[in-house]
Amino acid sequence: MKSITIDGSKRESVGKKATKALRNAGEVPCVLYGGDKPVHFSAPELAFSNLVYTPDAHTVVIALGNDKFDAVLQDIQFHPVTDKILHIDFYQLFEDKPIMMEIPVHIIGTSKGVLNGGVLRRNNRKLRVKALPKYLPDYLEADITPLKIGGKLYVTDLPQENFKIMHTENTVVCQVKRARAAIMTEIDEEEELEEGAEAATAEGAEGTAEATEATSSES
């Protein structure tokens, strides 16, 4: 998995006043968990743009002077009005300890159902995966080529090498649903067929009545 380096500085004070001063200076207060003790640090808000504002998954190298920590983003808080980053929690990675992480799903192929007028619905754009850090995938591939209208792709259909997808077997990744236009077309066709059948029945009934009437007249 690709990694992003965040250059930051350790925080000596973690009080409200110090935190407010950091934010006013364009810094984001952060905490790194998972080690012997939490590590408090800060970094410029722009340093997190490639980590936060992207659909891709990344691990992080947190560089604090001579100390470097491998980590993943665990939680993030935004301002409810301005959407500025208020706080970020990271979780430290260790080579011998599995980690769970949300991994994006990439769709590949062209569905037969979509080609026939169906609509692709993506039920889960990300899936939670458990693996050792070195085996964390950049993304999961979902091949929709075989999907017909009404078909579903489950997590069990995705390749899982050196990692485990932490969802139940019946979790749907994506599916091809029948488009409303296709449904309406079928309804119209059925109505036309019904009307045609009714007309044919009526014509047959009229013909039978005429034949009966003609036979009666001859008698």
Number of domains: 2
Distance, first to last CA: 95 Å
Q: Nearest-angstrom radius of gyration?
A: 31 Å
Unreliable runs = 183-190
Give a short account of the largest sheet.
7 strands, mixed
CATH class of the largest domain: Mainly Beta
Characterize the overall form.
elongated
CATH superfamily of the largest domain: Ribosomal Protein L25, Chain P
Structure write-up:
The chain is 26% helix and 37% strand. It has 2 domains: 3-93, Ribosomal Protein L25, Chain P (Beta Barrel); 100-177, RNA Polymerase Alpha Subunit, Chain A, domain 2 (Beta Complex), CATH 2.170.120.20. It is elongated, with a radius of gyration of 31 Å. A 7-stranded mixed sheet has the order 1-5-6-7-3-4-2, covered by helices on one side. The protein has a 4-stranded mixed sheet with strand order 11-8-10-13, with no helix packed on it. The chain starts with a strand and ends with a helix. It contains 4 helices and 14 strands. It has helices at residues 16-24, 49-52, 112-115, 180-218; strands at 3-7, 9-10, 27-33, 39-44, 59-64, 67-78, 85-92, 99-108, 119-122, 126-131, 140-143, 152-154, 164-165, 172-177. Mean pLDDT is 86; it is low at 183-190. It is of the alpha+beta class.
SSE layout:
Layout: E1 3-7, E2 9-10, H1 16-24, E3 27-33, E4 39-44, H2 49-52, E5 59-64, E6 67-78, E7 85-92, E8 99-108, H3 112-115, E9 119-122, E10 126-131, E11 140-143, E12 152-154, E13 164-165, E14 172-177, H4 180-218
